[in-house]
Known about the structure:
Elements: H1 2-28, H2 31-52, H3 58-75, H4 77-82, H5 93-97, H6 113-121, H7 128-138, H8 144-151, H9 155-171, H10 184-203, E1 207-208, H11 214-230, H12 235-249, H13 274-290, H14 295-308, H15 317-330, H16 334-347, H17 350-363, H18 371-382, H19 386-398, E2 401-402, H20 403-410
Parallel strand pairs: 1-2
Amino acid sequence: MDEEVRDALADAHRREWARVVAATVRTVRDLDLAEESAQDAFAEALTTWTRDGIPVHPGAWLTTVARRRAIDSRRRAASRQRKLPLLIEPESLDALEGSSPVGEVADEHALDDTMRLIFMCCHPSLSREAQMALTLRLVCGMVTADIARCFLVSESTMAARLTRAKKKITVARIPFRSPRPEDMADRREGVMGVIYLLATVGHTSPDGDLLIRKDSTREALRLARLLHEVMPDEPEVTGLLALVLVIDARQESRVDVAGLARRISEQDRSTWDLDAIGAAHAMILSSLQASRPGRYTLQAAIASLHAHATSFDEVDWPQIAILYDELLLVWPNPVVQLNRAIAISKTEGPLVALEIVERLEREGNLERYQYLPATKAYLLDQLDRGPEAELARSKAMALTANEVERAFLANGGVNSKR
């Protein structure tokens, strides 16, 4: 029974963490207290579910326990002194107990609790990186070490940034509510960045023994659709939805029956969701025609070219290289430069691509990013420089916390995101 309970809790954490935290924040208006109460609810579930059985609706059970714990903590004067100040002071504790249930929207805009929590975390008073990191912590329930890995910084550095972000939300008295229509533009980029990062985490888990976090990808897709409903005329919002659609459409083929990663050249394209890919393609065309494409539309176009090729050998690498050049103009990011190197290896040869990778290596911005040495190993293999490739591959494996990716690299694979 213990193993069954642990599996149920792990599933509930993936599916329900954001809703539990968001509902509790809405009740007590206190980030730290809401997060602590949610953690306590999961800890209590381990004991209670083992004794009484797994509830029919685990998320509702966890939310009820978390909110009750939070309200009880607010009643204790000593606890009130050591918690962060309220984001919005409620009229009374009775008002807290009367708060609306999970999923019910208390203001005039049709955003659910999870999306409202994201919009709060993406307040323009926070830096873009702080917005995304805080959302991964509160909405995705990611541990600090994994968030640090996403941003290529140390765990202690990320812990300090998260603490500062929470304090800034408190000092600025940023409310937990849907933003006014005129405020949405200020938060749009941050919210899109969070959804994109959530899709990326779902696409390749930072750690653990599963390559894909399907729940994260599906939540990113749900949020992208909801954002598109709120902002249907924003081309980049449309481009983001298209990108997440393509990512989700190809998930099933990325691992075999044993859970091991497949190279994209080995994937069964007949398992891809062609309807979703077709819908994404139409969105991409619409975004391209509406305005100069941004980072999400261009990434969606690159993913769409991969998805529309009948085989890996038929991929239009010259067009992909052009799109990467355009992407670098609007998003001059070293990760984009690294991804572009793969396209260059197909159009100009592995030696030219290796020069790009070695330049990025010297610059040092990607020293914690396992895909840099992984890509280098892939290119060195093509140049028949086996010993150097093994050295680079070993470095990539040392930087990889995901067991499936580590096995993939050990077998000579390169970045399974491609």
